[in-house]
Amino acid sequence: MKGYKGDSPSSPKLQQSAPKNTGRAQPANDLRSRKALGLVSNVLKTPAPKATQTRAVNIGVSFRNDSRGKVHVEHDREAIANIGKVKGVTAPNPQTLPKGASGPSTPDRTFGADTLKDIDMLYIPGGPYRNDTQTARDPSDKLDRDLNLPRKAYQVDEHESRAAYEKQMIQKAKTLGMPVMAVCAGTWRLLEAYGGEVETLPEDERSFHKAEDRSETWSLSHDVGTRRGTLLDSISRGKEDSSSNRGNRRAHTVHDVNSTHWAVAKTTGKSSGERLSQAPNQPLNPNDSLEISAKAKSRDKRVPETVEGVSSKHGAPVLGVQWHPESYLPGMPGQDKGMGKKAQERTENAKRIFTAMVQSAETYRNRKSVVAEIKSRVPKRD
């Protein structure tokens, strides 16, 4: 163990502390300590196996049956595979969750102990329906209240099945210390899994975030400010906001992003005291683990600065963004819109975000490998 400054099991210091053999029975604690030292010594003396080629990371992609399952294959999985086209990034393996899910039908989403067994990062994509905690900012607005409710039986089944399954996966990933990335409506599911809630945007604000014409889906954009010191800001740093106060923890760095959503994270408080709202009857408080890391910025003062991103305060990287950075990865639809400099900025931002998340997945994979290696070299008891 080159470079290790501590004491090996055979060092004089440890030998001096070991109890002398006096012929009398040793206390149970002393016997256990000696056995433990012997076990560590045996493990350290065991020759390491020959190095094997490191596998690419497996990114679990939650299945959605939009457009008879085509969106999952042609957008979600394709985006993950295309991360490998970014210079310096080894292409990850997209893995459909649940395994074997395809087509228009709602799959069996039974969550089990092995669901995330071979997964190194969890990816939660967007979707067409509102979330369970979603409420209207203006309760008197019927359109606002009912927007995107699943109405037909098959839509309700898919919504309920997917919502429960994704929340279970996110909670398990949290326990395992596994990286998680969520985009657009996937961010709402992330919030719910951590105890937060969502609100529908009022009609007069919705056009700022979601194109009324589908042909403009990838061209609608607005600025987003990332908060200094947050995980999202550190991995997606762009041009500096000229109004930022460099000494302010909540100063913003500005990015141009696409936008196609109709709801946002619900919050309480204002300015520096703004926090994610905790859902009613929910024991988890989202602010224990997540923090607001990005907000919409508009030249129109009538448009509120809504939450556009959340990220983990500590532990494994967990990231949720309301826009679609995956659409600007190489080979994805955002690359084909001829938007010049704006598209280039979004592409660079997307590359930074996904490169960082894949690196996090690699770290998680390597940690699992080290633990497995240690376990494999511990001698089995008789």
Q: What does this molecule look like?
A:
The protein contains nine helices and 15 strands. The longest helix has 37 residues. The chain is globular and about 70 Å long. By secondary structure, it is α/β, with parallel strands linked by helices. The relative contact order is 0.13. It has a single domain, classed as Class I glutamine amidotransferase (GATase) domain (Rossmann fold, 3-Layer(aba) Sandwich), CATH 3.40.50. Strand 1, helix 3 and strand 2 form a beta-alpha-beta unit. The strands form three sheets. Strands 2-1-3-5-15-14-13-7-9-8 form a ten-stranded mixed beta sheet, sandwiched between helices. The chain has a three-stranded mixed beta sheet with strand order 4-6-10.
Mean pLDDT: 80
Please give the CATH class: Alpha Beta
* Major sheet: arrangement of strands: 2-1-3-5-15-14-13-7-9-8
Write down the domain tally.
Answer: 1
What's the number of helices?
9
What class, by secondary structure content? alpha/beta
Largest sheet: 10 strands, mixed
Considering the protein shown, what is the CATH homologous superfamily?
A: Class I glutamine amidotransferase (GATase) domain
What helical percentage do the residues reach?
A: 25-40%
Tell me the strand percentage band: 15-25%
Globally, the shape reads globular
Brief sketch in words of this structure:
By secondary structure, the chain is α/β, with parallel strands linked by helices. It has nine helices and 15 strands. Helix 3 links the parallel strand 1 and strand 2 (93-97).
